[in-house]
UniProtKB/TrEMBL annotation, chains A, B:
Keywords: Flavoprotein, FMN, Monooxygenase, Oxidoreductase. Signal peptide: none annotated. Pfam families: Bac_luciferase (PF00296). Belongs to the NtaA/SnaA/DszA monooxygenase family. Residues 26-381 form the Luciferase-like domain. This is LLM class flavin-dependent oxidoreductase. It comes from the Bacteria. The keyword Protein biosynthesis does not apply. It comes from Kribbella alba.
Length: 451, 451
């Protein structure tokens, strides 16, 4: 069987480049404009993308002067998009630290019903102390505690999604019996973090469960991904790093008794596409020149637990930075930034330019052919099952990718020319979870024995 | 100025009659069918209804054999409906007992953005012990405690919705300044139930706040309604009771320094409409004959804190029932049922028939002209500012009301023939809240002095 790659469109207001909103073409209030996002989703669906995706955090970060700030809650936004599309998958980020499992499980099941089986959930534990202050806490729970809660949260969600058997609805008008009580089960979950009786107040959804996505790359994050996730978004700067991550995560998945093909690994890539290399580089340079470095330096300083004045723009990072172990949130992001700066001996100004383009994700400027080559290289070299496409500018960057890169990938036989199924799981080639009977273990679909 | 009545369509799967799903015309899985609800909303919008509304509770109640069980989460469902309509208001029920204010405030603001200013929130405290068991609790918080939390929850939500000034977004591409930090404010709320720093991670929405709706009629419920709500849904069986409730709530509202016209009172009515009285009564009888009394008796017994065997079908209710004061949830519903049974000396079987049609709301069978008369009578007699229309069967009952009753109300000059505004607040004739500056008091719009 030919291996096909998977493409997810990671959407964010005017694009992933932090200065994209300043371009003449950009709608600077796109972040609250549902029509903007419906248009983007239709473009991605035209390009036969597996899915679109929104990041999220229940907190307003940093300086609102910098770029479009604030965003529509993703399950709401994706529902509005569902009504404007018919095939493309819809992946929303939601936090296990700042939600209740009953409400969130029901909301994802609702999105799955409303979209005809296109819901996905990017499971995050929400790093950083700021979000905690919006939820009655003085500081974030410790990293390990957040991941422990996340695992139990997922177990509860799986049980709730399984609490109605698929054939629990009888709809027997003649007999006057709508549902079969014997096929709707309390879950009676009692754990360290949650006590939830259930059942869910919603029949089982088209996909059974939404697609489970994970994006943390810390040790705890990889552990959670190996145990539960079906797709992984990751930031990798070099082929070697990407291969190492890919091999590691597939091995961890297999070690837990799961089929490693049941986890699709999608590194991020920020393509800046031009008709010629020069045109692509000119667009990249134009964008970088629109960055105001003081905004980015403030944020970099927060990430590194320094003051902005500790980071002169034309010097490299200070030599004595804390280890990842000492960081209580966004561990993998911290390490990625420090490693990138050290490896390439970047000044703070250069580092800011690199992060401004894709926030630590791989940026790639070139022609459509070169972008397709870059994608194929990693795909063929066991560094990726697909890519998280992060256009620097939206909608134009997504349009160019869809109209000029996708056809190349299709001609090479690497990417679908039509959707062959109707659910998000169909697109990723993943089975609909079989009801696990409410056991404490992960459901069977996540436990497929390696042959 | 002519007084116009307001119409809200209270939607529920195949209709408010519990046996409606058994009719040949009904889609018995309408409860999870987004296309069914989009169709209903389009019908109501054709009828120029102010709004549609969904009840909700985060728990699966009772016997799934009885009628369509489980429902789509209302903010998700209404977002899907927003995409299929353009004018009609969208009111979702959400619990202050089983949500966090930050997440819920943001979700309603998101629905308001996505719908172009059509969001409403029916604020409930969620009665009954069962929901508590889905949220880490052994029993529900006491009635007064739930209402205390509800009031603080609303204060936090108002502050979050006000945390961005309307002109906080500058979008100054030239200067590279997207937002004005001086116009985005932390709320720094510290209260008995919540500590929330804010600001919200979303610019202020088209309506400022969603329309605030309340439906509890207990003393605490009326207090909350008088203090905060802008529309009240209520169950009233007789003109006298409705007038008393109307007068009481308007007086309470005025006593708090608010304009009593700022609270629209909408009793529920379950119209069963026929071309002739006989046809209407025949439809009502056909529906009642499809009720299986054992389901309804089980629920009645739970509501009355009795065993089903304490309620022989052909006898009246037992003489010794607890007082409302002893009931810790759904107080007003308890009293309504007991009062109805005693006043009309109903047997259990007859009571079940009455409740099966509209769950305690006023049922009315007749011709379109008679239904219009019934509506006008209460409206003219200061018993209602409008009505919560609860069709016994959906979609047919809503279609008949829209096509045959609405035109009569329009001809009489009682109801709009076109929408004159674009937001839900416009339809109800309510002002957009002015930003209160994050004070601990209710915002100015809810404090309008009586002239």
């Amino acid at each position: 069987m030919t291996r096909h790659l998977h493409l997810n469109a990671f959407l964010m207001s005017t694009g992933h480049h932090e200065a994209s909103w300043r371009l003449p073409e950009s709608n600077p209030v796109a972040n609250t404009d549902v029509a903007h996002y419906q248009n983007l989703a239709r473009i991605a669906e035209r390009g036969k993308f597996d899915s679109i995706f929104f990041a999220d955090s229940p907190v307003l970060f940093g300086d609102v002067g910098r770029r479009p700030a604030g965003s529509l809650e993703p399950t709401v936004l994706l529902t509005a998009i569902a009504a404007a599309t018919s095939k493309i998958g819809l992946i929303a980020t939601a936090s296990t630290t700042y939600n209740d499992p009953f409400n969130l499980a029901r909301r994802f099941a609702s999105v799955d019903h409303v979209s005809g089986g296109r819901a996905g959930w990017n499971v995050v534990t929400t790093a950083g102390p700021d979000a905690a202050l919006n939820f009655n806490l003085a500081d974030q729970p410790a990293h390990a505690e957040r991941y422990d809660r996340a695992a139990e949260f997922l177990e509860v969600a799986f049980k709730l999604w399984d609490s109605w058997e698929d054939d629990a609805t009888l709809a027997d008008k003649e007999a006057g019996v709508w549902g079969d009580n014997a096929k709707v089960h309390p879950i009676d979950h009692v754990g360290r973090h949650f006590q939830v009786r259930g059942p869910l107040n919603l029949p089982r959804s088209p996909q059974g469960y939404p697609l489970i996505v994970q994006a943390g790359s810390s040790e705890d994050g990889k552990g959670l991904a190996a145990r539960y996730s079906e797709a992984v978004f990751t930031a990798q700067q070099t082929l070697e790093d990407a291969q190492a991550f890919y091999k590691d995560l597939k091995a961890r998945t297999a070690a837990l008794g799961r089929d490693p093909n049941g986890v699709k690994i999608l590194p991020g890539i920020v393509p800046v596409i031009g008709g010629t290399v020069e045109e692509a580089l000119r667009l990249e340079r134009e964008l970088d020149e629109l960055i105001k470095p003081e905004y980015a330096r403030d944020q970099l300083a927060r990430t590194l637990r320094l003051k902005p004045e500790d980071l002169p723009l034309d010097q490299q990072l200070p030599a004595d930075l804390p280890d990842e172990d000492e960081i209580e949130g966004a561990k993998s992001r911290y390490t990625l930034i420090v490693t990138l700066a050290r490896r390439e001996k970047l000044t703070v100004r250069e580092l800011i330019g690199r992060l401004g383009g894709g926030r630590g994700h791989r940026t790639f400027s070139g022609t459509p052919e070169q972008v397709a080559d870059a994608i194929q290289e990693w795909f063929d070299a066991d560094a990726a099952d697909g890519f998280n496409i992060m256009p620097a500018v939206l909608p134009s960057g997504l349009e160019v990718f869809t109209d000029q890169v996708v056809p190349i990938l299709q001609r090479r036989g690497l990417f679908r020319t039509e959707y062959t199924g109707s659910t998000l799981r169909d697109h990723y080639g993943l089975a609909r979870p079989v009801r696990s009977g409410g056991s404490l273990e992960a459901p069977e679909s996540l436990q497929a024995a390696t042959a």
